[in-house]
């Protein structure tokens, strides 16, 4: 069996093959949904007692009370002091860059604004931070300190006063890099809880865990189902699907570089998807040869192999333009334009979580430290959603101050429309402000 | 029985009374959820045929095919030509003002941006419109032409190329004002379908109804449940709860004006909530007297009375500051500061969908034509969400172009962090770009 399938857009069966390749269902298992609904209702009803029971059952952590599940600032700082100096420097350098980028984002699109129209009415929007947010951090093998930075720093830049982190610690094992990242990112409180019970504690509040206004961060199917369930009572970020990379190559990037970029997505998870599009068949051959040569050197070879066999593809396109069109139909989470003139193709690309331009811009640099957020829309949701950002930790309030003169102009319009809708109190509220009423 | 309850923050039982007053559950009926899931699955499987069957059953509309359910541009223009000239002028004036405001919003927070850092790396965000959106417009008594403007115009300003509207027309009755508003707002296609079947058609696409990227607009419990269900496959706006107004008064506004503003919310629906907060008990007496005098003159008296009896309140506060704190705990959809110095209190108000400042700024002026959107977060969700806006019809893609020099700096950081997370392909993708590698 070959490592990765080869497709060609010129083949008669391309559309069908491509649709099969792309298939992934966001539907949640209804058994999981039922179980999650029970856990949520139980935590809503019994609070801390329920959280303690589920934590004992699922994470094998028996403690006397919730206080034993809070990880204090002293322990976070101790974790930061204990990790290797090179790791601490890397975490701090990444945090600085992520913070700098998100501060630019705040300036570019996160500030209040207002203006006065010709009648002296003031109109605008006031932008304010959320009061308190919850950050879900997975435990076990998928515990990523970089995700702590990527979720907490935008909240901090937005001005959120209280960032609560939850992270399951099965059997009591705590990940020192995750705790160090929480210290670097300025997380305010950390609880060693996870699963649907942690989402419930954040959404409804318990005697110990304060209720938050929004929950962000990735998790397993139970966490995703719980977030979807509490959506509306609190805000949530997107429900994440498997991670994906799409590379559009013009054949000028060293094949080993592109091969390793495809691997770096595939190593996440066997459902992860790595796709390369290129109009140059010889280049596809070269990348495939690189992949076959480099793969055995990877510790996560088995996951990479399963991911590539199941969902990977090297696709020969008729042109770079066609590659851009296919990319738009996918709306990939990560999109590399590994080309000599990336700025030539970028305007053709309408949908993507993040666009990595040029041979030096490996996705991994963006994942860790370029500055932009690595929490990105997956599974085609880049058609309608955006990277996690400062704007996810802010909300807007419209501002309206109508002048006496303005009320005369607006009152007539509002009155006519309100009568048309059969809402007479609306009409009369407008009419009462007219100075020429009898 | 009095028309509206009076509360005082100084009373011993205030907190309990206030909690009872505020109680409203966003939980969906599970019988409705099950029925909706069936309809969605059926439309996903059978497409147009299923939509036709449900439309025949629920809207008593039997037609030969989907073509008969599309309302063409000719009919929209005919509706616009047929309504009263005053209504047409009011619709067009409102649309102009709403468009002007949302164009400011686009300039303030909806444009692409980028910068270069000290190593010559380009970082930024590209902001692009959604390709195609669906606008749900309720039929029957709650069919509001103003909502057509408020949903379609931000999409149009964002640059959405195709705006698809669905509106149920039970028994084939079409609302000419709604169709005229669609013409004014520049809606591209209109289908006379509604309910969960319309949401399914938009979310999954059928042979006739194109699949959209996001669905916005209010609807009944079936529509709300359907939107929540398809969330993730498409984007949705917020799930709307009952409408609410909170007025903070300092006693300087004519009591009749405030009374009518409270009515204008209560007339929507008997679950709507109208609350007045004021530190001046005599002023509360005056407003109550106005309410009792003015109510019998309203055509929707019965709805107003039910809403006020069930969920309304006039609350005596110790101070304006306390009124602002209570308002923050409610996070109201509509917040009027009916005071001589609204700008003095505005900075104390952290959570609200829209803030109406000063005696002339009745909520009804904002509902129709001041310019800001009237689709606002309800049921306390202003804690974490925002008015509908241009930003709801755009999405962002991060832009990253790392320079050769930048790759040397970033590569070391990324490599260290990736090794720490056990993701060696990530590390090696970064290391391959280092020019000093052996």
Report on the architecture of this protein.
2 copies of one chain form a homodimer. The first copy, chain A, is of the alpha/beta class. The first copy, chain A, has 3 domains: 5-26 and 241-370, Rossmann fold (3-Layer(aba) Sandwich), CATH 3.40.50; 30-236, Rossmann fold (3-Layer(aba) Sandwich); 402-432, no CATH class. In chain A, 46% of the residues lie in helices and 16% in strands. Chain A has 17 helices and 15 strands. Chain A has helices at 14-22, 30-46, 48-59, 73-82, 85-109, 145-158, 176-185, 195-204, 221-230, 255-266, 281-294, 301-311, 320-330, 342-345, 363-368, 404-420, 424-432; strands at residues 5-8, 70-71, 113-116, 122-129, 132-136, 162-166, 189-191, 214-216, 235-236, 244-249, 273-278, 313-316, 334-338, 354-357, 394-401. In chain A, the strands form 3 sheets. Chain A has a 6-stranded parallel sheet with strand order 1-12-11-10-13-14, sandwiched between helices. In chain A, strands 2-7-6-5-8-9 form a 6-stranded mixed sheet, with helices on both faces. In chain A, helix 9 links the parallel strand 8 (214-216) and strand 9. The radius of gyration of chain A is 26 Å and the shape is globular. The model of chain A has no long low-confidence stretch (mean pLDDT 95). The interface between A and B is large, with 129 and 129 residues.
How many domains would you count in the coordinates of chain A? Answer: 3
Q: Within the largest sheet of chain A, what's the order of strands?
A: 1-12-11-10-13-14
CATH topology of the largest domain in chain A: Rossmann fold
Please report the total strand number of chain A as a whole number.
Answer: 15
Query: Per the principal axes of the C-alpha atoms, what is the gross shape of chain A?
Result: globular
CATH architecture of the largest domain in chain A: 3-Layer(aba) Sandwich
């Amino acid at each position: 069996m070959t490592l990765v399938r080869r497709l060609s857009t010129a083949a008669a069966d391309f559309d069908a093959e491509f649709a099969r390749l792309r298939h992934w269902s966001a539907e949640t298992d209804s058994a999981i949904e039922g179980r999650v609904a029970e856990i949520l209702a139980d935590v809503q009803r019994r609070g801390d007692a329920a959280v303690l029971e589920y934590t004992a059952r699922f994470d094998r952590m028996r403690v006397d009370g919730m206080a034993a599940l809070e990880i204090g600032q002293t322990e976070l700082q101790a974790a930061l002091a204990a990790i290797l100096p090179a790791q601490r420097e890397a975490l701090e350098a990444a945090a600085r860059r992520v913070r700098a980028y998100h501060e630019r984002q705040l300036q570019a699109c996160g500030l209040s604004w207002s203006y006065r129209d010709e009648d002296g009415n003031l109109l605008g929007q006031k932008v304010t931070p959320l009061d308190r947010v919850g950050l879900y951090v997975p435990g076990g093998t998928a515990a990523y300190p970089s995700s702590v930075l990527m979720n907490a720093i935008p909240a901090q830049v937005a001005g959120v006063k209280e960032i609560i982190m939850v992270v399951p610690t099965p059997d009591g094992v705590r990940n020192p890099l995750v705790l160090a990242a929480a210290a670097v990112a300025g997380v305010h409180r950390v609880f060693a809880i996870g699963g649907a019970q942690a989402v419930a504690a954040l959404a409804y509040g318990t005697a110990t865990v304060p209720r938050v206004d929004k929950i962000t961060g990735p998790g397993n199917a139970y966490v995703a189902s719980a977030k979807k369930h509490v959506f509306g009572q609190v805000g949530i970020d997107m429900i994440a699907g498997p991670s994906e990379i799409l590379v559009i190559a013009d054949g000028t990037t060293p094949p080993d570089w592109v091969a390793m970029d495809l691997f770096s997505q595939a190593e996440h998870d066997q459902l992860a998807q790595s796709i390369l599009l290129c109009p140059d068949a010889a280049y596809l051959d070269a990348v495939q040869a690189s992949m076959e040569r480099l793969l055995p050197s990877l510790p996560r070879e088995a996951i990479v192999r399963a991911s590539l066999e199941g969902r990977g593809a090297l696709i020969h396109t008729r042109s770079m333009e066609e590659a851009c069109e296919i990319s738009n139909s996918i709306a990939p989470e990560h999109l590399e334009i590994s080309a000599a003139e990336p700025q030539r193709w970028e305007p053709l690309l309408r949908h993507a979580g993040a666009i990595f331009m040029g041979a030096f811009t490996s996705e991994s640099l963006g994942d860790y430290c370029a500055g932009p957020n690595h929490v990105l829309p997956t599974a085609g949701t880049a058609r309608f959603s955006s990277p996690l950002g400062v704007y996810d930790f802010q909300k807007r309030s419209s501002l309206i101050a109508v002048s006496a003169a303005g009320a005369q102009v607006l009152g007539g319009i509002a009155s006519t429309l309100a009568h048309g809708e059969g809402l007479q109190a609306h009409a009369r509220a407008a009419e009462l402000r007219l100075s020429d009423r009898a």
